[in-house]
Inverse folding.
């Protein structure tokens, strides 16, 4: 057998460069972020691997259900069951081998490294290879393996990927479909963390390099309460929230959680933990008690202990030849593309490079089309950010999204829309504007909503405008409530020797002054305004969900739910991702596979448009999309690639307090590692 050298995709350097640093927590407080940073640490240290060297190795082995494995370890690093399976094979594996006799046998080689994009490439001058794979790309590759008879299966190399729980569950569902098609799926890693191991549990077989590690653990939460810090610097949060369980003001106004927030968040955490335990138990044929025992012991186990405890199925070398030759023989070909085309640009050709840089995205549709519209990040007025904003992350600008929704409405070839949401909420006004635009679109063509990791507060507000809502079991939704107010800096000014002379005219002219808290009359006015927004929020949910959610009050007032819980209580319709929404939408429209195109919106930004936005040709309205501050890159490195998107979304949303007094926002960053 000829071994191919398969390399993982290249990363891409952002166009904005790297900035300096400043103390993270201090800036968080002074920019009036009411975030309670929650780090649900379900794993240990990130798997450290020799990425370049290992990603050039390939291999494949036989998968058998873990429940059949004996607890004995052979001298060559296999369980007895694995040895027996390698000799005889299962019916599914045999079927795959027979199918491959009519064509040259192929085995897929899929490298998961770093993070997966949830949407299309944001810039027209960046290739998909440079931007790295998206979740949709990986799902398409796995689907390609399942549908083509020449493939015996696929080996997934987990090269220290950074995966969200919702992505793991989506990939696990697709892996189950590949296995149902008679193909063998296995994973290989030098070290598994919790998310990687959860994904591996959906495969036929889990391979671990000799002397490798499996570091899985329970979940833990750390919530930051900053009232004491604000007091030390002479600042004070004067916030008001509508919704008993909202909890949005507590991080800035309390030194610990309220009983209502404890009740709200503990129920959410319990269900997420139960999903993690259940995923491992179902995949490995363990009881829940056996899984919990594993969580406590895995950090102190040797590689042979992992075999004995059925944590992995085989210990192998990096080339995995000892496994692949037993399973597939030595006459098959590795394929690392699995249906994805490989576009390349000759950077030595100036004309080709110039054409790439200034390429305008194709905006035409020529036949029946389904549009997938992506909405990720905090919600604010003005233009969306594609990663160049204040916190170097994406955001949802109402102007941008309304224009995209209008374009989809006016394009006769677009027969239906899937709105893909990942958002903790943000501006109440911007959420309402987007809700109206989605409803306008829905009057002419169906709009199905697919939620990724989160559609909370304003994110759920706009989701309710759709005809159907699809969730991952671990998606976080709800937080129907409102928060508003200001940060009072009078004490800080006194400490710093700053004298503020205030001038105002007319009633409530200085209601949001930064020196003093609200007066009783001012606070009453702010509360009245927030109650109007809350009532409108509840009304929008009622209109959108109708009889499917008979008692909105039972899920309102800031309560949080997992996707699994939300489907049960009527807040959403079905568990599933974009793929499931697409199947149902095209089925309702009577469109068969091959009879329609799929377009992802917003379109990739051209270089000319990007430069115009950078230099003010059409500057965003809100400061939430302003250029990144010097401390952002440092904070991003400290928190890590898994935690930063959730933390930055929450912080970016709360920065809107500078511009808008009332927010529909869940300001808590929830990270499952």
């Amino acid at each position: 057998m000829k071994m191919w050298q398969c390399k993982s995709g290249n990363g891409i350097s952002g166009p904005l460069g790297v900035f300096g640093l400043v103390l993270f927590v201090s800036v968080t407080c002074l920019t009036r972020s009411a975030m309670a940073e929650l780090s649900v640490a379900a794993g240990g240290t990130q798997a450290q691997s020799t990425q370049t060297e290992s990603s050039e190795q390939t291999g494949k082995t036989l998968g058998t259900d873990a429940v059949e494995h004996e607890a004995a370890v052979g001298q060559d690093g296999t369980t007895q069951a694995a040895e027996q399976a390698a000799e005889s094979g299962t019916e599914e594996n045999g079927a795959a081998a027979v199918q491959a006799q009519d064509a040259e046998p192929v085995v897929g080689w899929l490298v998961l490294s770093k993070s997966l994009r949830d949407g299309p490439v944001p810039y027209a001058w960046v290739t998909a290879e440079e931007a790295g794979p998206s979740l949709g790309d990986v799902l398409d590759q796995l689907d390609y393996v399942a549908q083509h008879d020449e493939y015996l299966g696929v080996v997934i190399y987990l090269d220290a990927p950074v995966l969200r729980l919702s992505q793991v569950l989506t990939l696990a569902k697709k892996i189950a479909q590949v296995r149902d098609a008679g193909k063998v799926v296995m994973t290989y890693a030098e070290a598994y963390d919790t998310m990687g191991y959860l994904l591996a549990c959906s495969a036929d077989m889990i391979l671990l390099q000799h002397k490798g590690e499996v570091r899985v653990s329970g979940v833990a939460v750390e919530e930051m309460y900053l009232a004491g810090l604000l007091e030390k610097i002479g600042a004070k949060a004067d916030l008001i929230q509508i919704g008993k369980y909202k909890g949005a003001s507590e991080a800035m106004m309390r030194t610990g959680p309220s009983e209502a927030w404890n009740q709200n968040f503990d129920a959410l955490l319990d269900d997420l933990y139960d999903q993690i335990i259940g995923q491992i138990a179902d995949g490995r044929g363990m009881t829940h008690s056996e899984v919990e025992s594993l969580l406590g012991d895995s950090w102190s186990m040797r590689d042979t202990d992992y075999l004995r405890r059925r944590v992995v199925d085989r210990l192998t070398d990096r080339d995995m030849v000892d496994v692949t030759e037993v399973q597939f023989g030595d006459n098959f070909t590795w394929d690392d593309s699995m249906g994805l085309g490989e576009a390349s640009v000759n950077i030595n050709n100036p004309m080709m490079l110039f054409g790439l840089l200034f390429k305008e995205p194709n905006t035409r549709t020529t036949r029946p089309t389904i549009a997938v519209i992506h909405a990720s990040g905090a919600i604010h007025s003005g233009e969306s950010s594609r990663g160049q904003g204040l916190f170097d992350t994406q955001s949802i600008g109402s102007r941008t999204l309304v224009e995209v929704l209008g374009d989809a409405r006016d394009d006769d070839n677009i027969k239906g829309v899937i709105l893909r949401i990942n958002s903790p909420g943000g501006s109440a006004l911007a959420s309402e504007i987007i809700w109206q635009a989605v409803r306008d679109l829905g009057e002419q063509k169906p709009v199905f909503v697919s939620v990724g990791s989160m559609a909370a507060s304003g994110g759920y507000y706009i989701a309710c405008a759709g005809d159907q809502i699809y969730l991952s079991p671990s998606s976080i939704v709800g937080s129907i409530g409102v928060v508003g107010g200001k940060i009072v800096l009078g004490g800080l000014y006194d400490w710093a020797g700053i004298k503020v002379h205030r001038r105002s005219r007319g009633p409530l002219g200085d209601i949001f002054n930064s020196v003093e808290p609200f007066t009783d009359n001012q606070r009453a006015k702010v509360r009245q305004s927030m109650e109007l927004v809350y009532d409108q929020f509840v009304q929008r949910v009622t209109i959108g969900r109708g009889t499917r959610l008979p008692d909105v009050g039972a899920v309102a007032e800031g309560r949080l739910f997992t996707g699994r819980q939300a489907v049960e209580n009527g807040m959403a319709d079905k568990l599933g991702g974009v793929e499931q929404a697409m199947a149902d939408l095209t089925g309702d429209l009577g469109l068969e596979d091959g009879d329609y195109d799929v377009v992802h919106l917003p379109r990739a930004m051209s270089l000319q448009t990007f430069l115009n936005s950078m230099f003010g040709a059409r500057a965003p309205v809100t400061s939430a999309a302003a250029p990144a501050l010097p401390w952002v890159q440092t904070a991003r490195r400290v928190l890590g690639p898994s935690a930063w998107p959730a933390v930055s979304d929450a912080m970016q949303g709360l920065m809107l307090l500078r511009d808008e007094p009332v927010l529909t926002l869940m300001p808590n960053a929830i990270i499952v590692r």
Notes: The chain has two domains: 50-220+285-335, 367-484+535-672.
